[in-house]
Amino acid sequence: MSTSSRNKLLKVLVYRVLSMLVAVAVSWAYLGSFAKSAGLTLILTALMTAAHYAYEAAWERWCSHL
After folding, report:
1. Could you tell me what percent of the chain has a pLDDT over 90?
2. How many H helices and E strands in the chain?
3. Mean pLDDT of 16-35
4. What is the number of alpha carbons within 13 Å of residue 20 lying toward its C-beta?
5. Please, what is the end-to-end C-alpha distance for the chain in angstroms?
6. How far, in Å, CA of 34 to CA of 7, rounded?
7. Does residue 54 contact residue 6 with C-beta atoms inside 8 Å?
8. Mean pLDDT along residues 54-66
9. For the stretch 43-60, what's the b/e string if a residue is b when 16 or more beta carbons lie within 10 angstroms of its beta carbon?
10. CA distance 4 to 14
11. Which residue of 24, 39, 54, 65 has the fewest C-beta atoms within 10 A of its own C-beta?
């Protein structure tokens, strides 16, 4: 894995950790259950992390032609 790819992955993971903390807090306040909010947040975080990484990679590919 190149340095650029590692930096991109690290950037995505750090952002996901921050967004996960916000999501847990908001869903806990809404659902009233830490266990439910943590489970929902973990599922959504995994899906959104994969989507974000794929988007970043596709964006780089598309923008390199401009």
Report:
1. 55
2. 2, 0
3. 93
4. 18
5. 25
6. 32
7. no
8. 88
9. eebeebbeebbeeeeeee
10. 15
11. 65
| Amino acid at position 59, single letter | W
Q: What is the mean pLDDT of the chain?
A: 90
Give CA–CA dist 61/38, Å, rounded: 34
Q: In percent, how much of the chain has pLDDT > 70? A: 100
Which is more confident, 5 or 41? 41
Quick one: which of 24, 52, 18, 25 has its CA closest to 39? 24
SS (H, E, C) 6-35: HHHHHHHHHHHHHHHHHHHHHHHHHHCCHH
